[in-house]
Amino acid sequence: MDVATARERLKNMLAELDRSIGVLRGDSPAAGDRSPADAGSELTDSDRNRALLEGATRHRGSVIEALRRMEEGRYGLCADCAAPVPEGRLEARPEAARCLQCQSKRERRR
């Protein structure tokens, strides 16, 4: 994937994540229009929404970091071993910072 296409995809991802985060935070105009009867379901959904918000916020950080790597000329290089990140991985996950081997090692350490 060429850098211009990757940049466009990352910017679109960032915009979508920003919209999702706003909705999860209750920033949407419709959030205040709910009936009091919905309050119970809102409480039961709060844990799920909190988890979704945390995930979206982490993903947003990954996208911003990928755009930063792009500006610095490091996009497409593994953050750990500096080997090229496979094209297919970048197609699937344009925000990927690591090659598959380094990402696997990182996940095993968690």
3D structure, described in words:
This protein has 110 residues and is mainly α. The chain is 65% helix and 0% strand. It has four helices and no strands. It has helices at residues 3-25, 39-71, 87-92, 100-109. Helix 1 packs antiparallel against helix 2 (39-71). The longest helix has 33 residues, at 39-71. The protein is globular. The two termini are 30 Å apart. The mean pLDDT is 88.
Instruction: Report on the biggest sheet.
Output: none
Q: Which structural class fits the helix and strand makeup? A: mainly alpha
Please count the beta strands (DSSP E, at least 2 residues each).
0
Strand content: under 5%
The count of helical stretches stands at 4
Q: Work out the helicity level.
A: 55-70%
Order of helices and strands: HHHH
Low-confidence stretches: none
What coarse outline follows from CA principal-axis ratios? globular
Output mean pLDDT: 88
- Cα gyration radius (Å): 18 Å
How far is the first residue's CA from the last residue's CA? Answer: 30 Å
